[in-house]
Amino acid sequence: MYRGINDFKKGYQPRTIIVKDDKGELVADPHSILARWRNYFSQLLNYMRIHTVEPLVLEPSAFEVELAIGKLKNHKLPGIDQNPAN
């Protein structure tokens, strides 16, 4: 709505989308602009190295499993695994 009122007040002004290519020259063709963005992001993502650090989680011991099962409430519906607590 704001854009419509603003265009009405200022009159029609065509929008131009121009980007610079990797050589610094201006590009206005829609296909060239898309190619430039594709190239830019492929270079950007190839240079970035994404390191994920997964915390070391040890397998639970039998004692820890028994302790967790002991804390479950009796006479409740089983969860996704369909194993009741009792």
Biggest sheet: strand arrangement: 1-2
Radius of gyration: 30 Å
Largest sheet: 2 strands, antiparallel
**Treating each run of at least 4 consecutive H or I residues as one helix, how many helices?**
3
How helix-rich are the residues, as a percent range? 40-55%
SSE run: HEEHH
- Tell me, what's the shape? elongated
- Please tally the β strands and state the result: 2
Distance between the termini: 62 Å
- Structural class based on helices, strands and sheet pairing: mainly alpha
Portion of residues in beta strands equals under 5%
- The overall pLDDT, averaged over residues, is 82
What does this structure look like?
With about 90 residues, this protein is mostly helical. The protein has a domain at about 1-45. It has three helices and two strands; from the N terminus they run αββαα. It has a two-stranded antiparallel ribbon. A hairpin with a 5-residue loop joins strand 1 and strand 2 (about 25). The longest helix is centred in the middle third of the chain and has 18 residues, at about 30-45. The mean pLDDT is about 80.
